[in-house]
Amino acid sequence: MEKFRLLIIILSFSSMLFLSCNTSDRVENSKGSSVGLELLSSDQTGITFNNAIQESETVNHMYYNQIYSGAGVGIGDLNNDGLPDIYFGGNQVSDRLYLNKGNFKFEDISKESKITRSPGWTWGVTMADVNADGYLDIYVSRNGESMNPKDRANKLFINNKDLTFTESALAYGIADKGFSSQAVFFDMDNDGDLDMYQVNQLPDSRLFKRYTNIPKKRYQLYKDKLYKNEGGKFKEITKDVGIIDRYSYGLSVSASDLNNDGWTDLYVSNDYDEPDFMYYNNGDGTFKNVIIDKIKHISRFSMGTDTGDINNDGFVDLLTLDMAAEDHYRSKTNMKSMSTKEFEKMIDKGDHHQYMFNTLQVNNGYGEFSDIANLAGIAKTDWSWGGLLVDLNNDGLKDIIISNGVKKDVRNNDFLTGLYEKLKTNSQDFYNMAKLAPSNPLPNYVYQNKNGLEFENVTQKWGFDIPSFSHGLSYADLDNDGDLDIVTNNMETEASIYKNTTSGNYLKVEFEGSNSNTFGYGAKVFIYNNGTIQTSENTVTRGYLSSKEPNLFFGLGKDKKIDSVKVVWPDGKILAYKDVDVNNTITAKYSKSIKKSLEFKNYKPIFSKIAANDIGIDFIHRENEFDDFREEVLLPHKLSTEGPFSAVADVNGDGLEDVFIGGAAKQEGALYLQVQEGEFEKSLSRPWSKDKNVEDLGVLFLDIDSDGDKDLYVTSGGSEFKTGSKFLKDRIYVNDGFGNFTKDTKALPNIYKSTQTVKASDIDADGDLDLFIGTRLISGKYTYPASSYLLINENGIFKKASTKLAPVLQDLGMVTDAVFSDIDSDGDEDLLVIGEWMKIKVLENIDGVFTDSSQKFGIGNDSRGIWWSITANDIDNDGDDDYIIGNLGKNNKFKATKEHPFKVYANDFDGNGTNDVVLAKYYKDDYVPMRGKECTTQQMPYVGEKFKDYHSFASSKLIDILPEKEVENAVVYEISNFESIVLINNNGKLISQPLPLEAQISPIKSSLVDDFNEDGFKDIMVVGNHYGVEIETTRYDAGYGAIFLGNGKNQFSFSASIKTGFYLPRDSRSISTININKKNKVFLITNNNDEVTVLKHEQYTSRK
User: Which of 451, 407, 456, 415 has the alpha carbon at shortest distance from 432?
Assistant: First the structure.
């Protein structure tokens, strides 16, 4: 794990500046923030710019696929009068420059400024003081359909300080002739001047078909470029600094210190199949692409990107946009089914796990990220271009605005079907073919940040819902009234100017930088107030093809005073202010800054990682290849990747605890003996090697034969084997007392089911341990309820109990976990069972018979979930067990509420002998299928015959698609909540409360309770994830383990991993505690298809 530190700048009192800042007329707000976005007319603003596209027989999307990609907008104060001006990029129309005259009045000075003398197909607009004279210049990235490099040369408009500009790109060395998208100016080497990264593209694929004799030397123009500033002019250094030498279709770039090491990094979003690039700055003038290592998955068709701290933890987070539609009809008509072969090929090539969804990557504190877009509610916003993280209601949390809409739905499946038919006729009437593509303007989106992780769609509430084709967007306080207004560059309609009417308090920070970086690009600002932190970086290229003005804005809500403000310049110099008034503008001057060594807050962690190999545990789980989706195409996730699990016991009587770890199918498990404190050796006893073809799942050490030592029970599961397979019989390995094991083939009845759970209790009160065996699934029959059973121990031989002992176990469900616990405090152990698509079951032991008493103990009929794990512990120390139950979590696309639960239907709907699984969601006034026409037809061919086009399928309700008779006989379940929970046992009633939001970012596969920080209160440890999902669902990989600290009142708070040292960004399955001696212990976490993780619990006395 890389060292990653939270920047805490500590200055002496004398270095603080007590200042009087520029004060606005705004009255300090004490009532909180309200927001409204008022769309101003062109009559009010004078802005009539319209990026209109005139199509013709030779100019349409059949000839040029990028014709609807739009253009950007740049905002900055070009004449230093304190009012931000606006530059609009145009495609077929000329660019336009508008001078801000105040009070939302703008003057078109395009002709007088001389920018119209350089026409071309503009995409990106960036403002920066390129020649360091104190005035913003304008850099324009050019694209278009011309294959003549001269037509695409980028333009640099040098500010003449009189509102005129001189085009000087060639003179400065940045007349880039690629198919350019956007540029970012930043200080790559902290030498005080601005360097530049240029995002380029290959020519549109249809241009390749029209122009076949492209000189090879031109291909170098189509790659991204990095230009170093050398004495005020730029030199291209791309090949020498680690920038990837490959062709891509880049659309945007963000420059930000993503790993908090003081050097500016780069994130480049790429369209189509090329993965995004994430370049970490090595600090020596070179970069390294770390996208695979630092991010678990990315957007497939990445468009706009932005960076910012959404949860105010001091770390920079990341937003990327894609084109998945929120609306069911648009999703099913415009989204093509993903190809499993293409997806796997992409991964094999090293092009990452790419999904057609927006991503909101939260920085975990180590420069690594977790996507929480589904939890945040922003994963699907249709054909989205630009996204910005910006505080619109001045409450101190960054909201999200998104520009949306494409002029023609060129990916509409029915349009494409008809197009391909016409092309088969060798028709050349491309213009009329192009006209057939549907055109639907769409509203933009705005999401209010509720708590740092969850967002509310307030598009209509805040007045941002006018349908349009919006591309570039930016923000600025256009009228200097203390809030951020919004500008969008639209296609076919006039540009939009939204006046913000929020009322919260604020602080602005402007910059007077060094001689070579006059506007302080790359400077960071930290605001500390009432124990909270806000941070932002002064980088202007943001969103899609656009840029903002070079200052920073902080919403402050009802705060009337700021404790301190600290500015860190790229070279490390610091400027600090104390007791700052709100509703002010600070001008941070580099000349007043001091060079002071930064102090970093280094937390003394609760846990430290131990390399498993170093202590002798060399086990690496190797998952066998199995295609769960071959017969059940519509499965939501794999069922063959449930392991491995571990069990701990002293098997050889030496006083040291040992550990067994189960293997995958075709991999034997392993027993590791602790030979001295904290050191292990693999046991020579390996009877399970003969059973390596079996999938080991649940494992348990217990004394089966009452001889005083620990024997081993291993369940045999997985979805690879059909019920009745010899590989599905569970196994018992008997211990001779010295840690030598022998398989006992007669100790178990011949039951051949796919099991996972094994739990022990003296069910019949005869002094030995009996077993509950939970059946995980019926292979090929997803959701069909499997029967679990009890095994009664009779002198070391287990016999299946009569169903009369627990009739509820028949057709119980897909059991994932269980726990014996005396829930009613009557002296015998009851049984709690959970599972996938199961209700929480409380089986009360009444005179040796287990009865379903779930409702008696407060479990409602709405308790069904995708439950993975259950842990019993007296969390509140009141003398009875409470329960932590891990669910799927809220970071998934399957939204569920009590009013509109998420549903599944399973049956052989088409009568072909295979189980058909149909997931369903509520849409408008009824239920519709989650999956699209192609994959549904693949599972049930009659669907393709019944619905000849995508429109009819997308317009149909579920009851119109599935046969009515088969639906009546189907397995039907519904889930109203995916939250992981704690059940507090309150005098025999189980009170459900959700775990904190940070626990909901992934499935919880295992949990453990202990007083980890040794404050006298019990805490909770969780691990999880589930990587094996179908390819149209983003995999569950956001979890990195978590510690929730308790306060003794059944309240738990998340403690960041940089504080605890508990960081497990893997596909984790189980936690085991191994005692090393009377004082020390380690935690062993098993991970699917990976090595195990071992964490040492540091004693609190050693951490003080």
Answer: 415
